[in-house]
Amino acid sequence: MTTGAATNLAPMSLSDIVDEAFDLYKSHFALFAGIAAVVAVPASLIDRLASHWLGIYRLMERIGASDQPPDAAAIGAMMLYFMVAATVMSISYVLQTGALTSAIAQRVLGRPTSLAAAYRSVRGSFWRLLGAWGLVGVIWCAVMGAAVFATAIVIGVAAAAVAAGGSMGTASAVAAGLIAGLVIGVIMALVAVMTSVFVTQIVMIEGRPATETLNRQWALAKGQVWRLAVACVAVSLGSAILVGTTYASIDALLEYALFPALHIPFEAQITVSSILSTLIGLLAQPFIATAFTLLYFDQRVRREGFDLDVLSRSAHTQGPAEC
Asked: Model pTM greater than 0.90?
């Protein structure tokens, strides 16, 4: 059981949020990392078992060594694997981020909490959380479909320009492609901020149903979409770079030194690399969840004059906070 004083939140800059997130993470590392591991480790194990049972890694090795396209059985096995992986990933993400958000919110409010208490809170909110993220997924699919359609048009126009203009047309096509990619990336980032950045916090902290979550998300983000987009990109990209460089360094050491020296089979190499990726990811996910939860509270302070001290005294020890 972890206890402590409530965090005194006032409107914070991005650097303040990052600093506070690091402090919270360091103070409660065992709790937050344990919450992430409870779901991530079994999910990784299920993924490994499914890939081994379907022979995915042997199949990938065979496809890579052959010039022939994969047969129907191979395609079916890979599709089944990706369906299992996507299902496990979705469920584990909802459970993990929900429990992390609950624990982080309790610590911000100065309430006692524990690993078991965090997952008990998810048990009562799982279907609402899954439904809210399902609605977000539908919106993302629609936006991505529109982006793919727009990209296809740009590529078609660029191809026509290349055919008509020679080298000048090629330069124009490259420029058009880069601009289109940049615009689509910005649009996707803004859509993500407007529809999803506080979804887990709204469900877990406010206890709202899935059907109200998107409206509430928009109410919190409205007017500060660019600020939130910059904050989310900075936190996510910074964490991704740190995790990626750490993983790449260790994986390169394994691939070019340890694996050849020990003559480890290809499938075992993939398994070790996957476990390594899971373990390193365990260090990043709690920090991202902490930063996003602090950003959520900061947004409520800015928009609603949210009083954490009053809420901490009046709300129950564990459970959704009153709005």
From this structure: no
Amino acid at 140: W
Provide φ and ψ at 71, rounded to 5°: -80, 180
Place of tokens 């492609």: 177
Distance from C-alpha of 110 to C-alpha of 313, rounded to nearest angstrom: 10
Would you state the structure tokens that stand for residue 176, as one six-digit string?
A: 């058009």
Alpha helices in 197-265 (DSSP H): 199-201, 210-221, 225-253, 259-262
CB 132 within 8 A of CB 112: no
The region that residue 148 occupies, defined by phi over 0 for left and psi between -120 and 50 for alpha, beta otherwise, is: alpha
Answer whether 191's CB lies under 8 Å from 137's CB.
no
Distance CA 251, CA 276 (A): 8
Closest residue by Cα to residue 197 from 261, 289, 76? 289
DSSP 58-93: HHHHHHHT-SSPP-HHHHHHHHHHHHHHHHHHHHHH
Round to whole Å and give the CA distance between 123 and 101: 13
The residues near 130 (Cβ < 8 Å, ≥ 6 apart) are 90, 91, 94, 210
Task: Name the amino acid, one letter, at 253.
Answer: L
b/e code 195-207 from CB counts within 10 Å (16+ = b): bbbbbbbbbbbbb
By three-state DSSP, how is residue 2 classified?
strand
Q: Whole-angstrom Cα distance, residue 124 to residue 190?
A: 31
pLDDT, mean of each 10-residue run, the chain (323 residues) = 57 87 91 90 78 68 62 73 82 91 90 91 91 88 77 68 58 65 71 82 91 89 84 84 79 77 72 74 86 91 67 45 45
Enumerate helices (H) and strands (E) in the chain, giving the number of each.
12, 0
Q: Say how many C-beta atoms besides its own lie within 10 A of residue 117's C-beta.
A: 19
In the chain, where are the structural domains located? 128-222
120 CB contacts (<8 Å, ≥6 apart)? 318
d(CA 37, CA 234): 25
Q: How far apart, in whole angstroms, are the C-alpha atoms of residue 292 and residue 220?
A: 13
